[in-house]
Amino acid sequence: MYAIVRDRGMQYRVEEGQALDIALLDAEPGSEIELGDVLLIGGEQPRVGTPTVDGAKVVATVLGTTKGDKIVVFRYKNKKRYRRRTGHRQEYTRVSISKIIVDADEQHVTGSTEGETNGA
Question: Among residues 8, 5, 4, 3, which one has the least CA distance to residue 25?
Fold first, then answer.
């Protein structure tokens, strides 16, 4: 099962156990956070929100902070001896998706059905 979540203007496709880099948060490593709005729950029976899925939540555990790749910004003006080279590294918060909750009444629902017997 997967979910599409919107968090501060960005949309992410997440699954349980996945590590994800999101925009920097002021959260301590080891704390649990709830990611923004759940737009879609996918799987065998997908649920599409209008605009969000009611009662659905994605809970993530904060692993720490990390930095992205360096971006080089180079400005140049022809025939004027003007050159400026600067760089930038964006900071991110790395989170691990721990639960995808479909309904507030149902607790933690995974891709497999729990409590099934072998029919014996």
Answer: 8
